[in-house]
């Protein structure tokens, strides 16, 4: 037979007072509830733990004193766990595990973390780059406390706050003929070899854009990282399409690339922060609020490439 925390609390309170009526008054419950709790504890151990004396209240037997001591320690441990849990929920400390499918996250995530985390070193970060689907799965199974991901392909069970809408743009070598234009079209892009970001969700999105063109472009290379894609473009292997851009034009190979808005009406992608909204830890909510504030600042709009007239 299992015992509830309530029954154990009533039992130890009764023994502490040595009187059922006084225990009931302290607990603000009926005396019958205290008496019933004593019966439950005795039944659970199949022992006589309390001697009831009509005129002198109640008194613990030797077994009763032993059981009461063990239950008191158990209740103390329970209360300590609950206090620690409350501290964990409300304190800006502990471990923050973030999964991100945001190819240019190194351009903004450290700045966001610097703005929202305390300087006392009480927060340990675990940052994992992953694809869009594994980021969402990681949030659902508890691997991550928060994720940065493309919410256009969000699972129904994922709760999130949108951060920024990023239209597709063209990545070009700095000296490319199309780089001399203010904007480019998909028809112009299709006339040049393409480097395609070969990541789950992204590959399908970019192929979908290309399939709309009457002339199928030549795929020069597939790359599964944004920086490899930019380096290939910078070295002249082709042009590419992305949605978010870093703040610098140089690549790992020291070549220069530029971004040009695409004039066609294309579906954008939306970066969002996913997290458990019902009962977020304080640390998680602080991070989410910092993400929202960062992308709400017009000064940080340079992570997307849009027409000048489209910027708010």
Give a structural overview:
The chain is 40% helix and 21% strand. It has helices at 5-17, 20-27, 31-45, 62-90, 105-116, 132-140, 186-189, 202-211, 226-234, 282-296, and strands at residues 50-53, 57-60, 94-100, 123-129, 146-150, 160-166, 169-173, 194-197, 219-223, 239-242, 257-261, 269-275. The protein is α/β, with parallel strands linked by helices and 312 residues long. A hairpin with a 3-residue loop joins strand 1 and strand 2. Strands 4-3-5-12-6 form a five-stranded mixed sheet, sandwiched between helices. It has a five-stranded mixed sheet with strand order 9-8-10-7-11, sandwiched between helices. It folds into three domains: 5-90, Winged helix-like DNA-binding domain superfamily/Winged helix DNA-binding domain (Arc Repressor Mutant, subunit A); 94-164 and 269-300, 3-Layer(aba) Sandwich (D-Maltodextrin-Binding Protein, domain 2), CATH 3.40.190.10; 168-261, D-Maltodextrin-Binding Protein, domain 2. The radius of gyration is 31 Å and the shape is rod-shaped. The protein is built from ten helices and twelve strands. The model has no long low-confidence stretch (mean pLDDT 88). The longest helix is centred in the N-terminal third of the chain and has 29 residues, at 62-90.
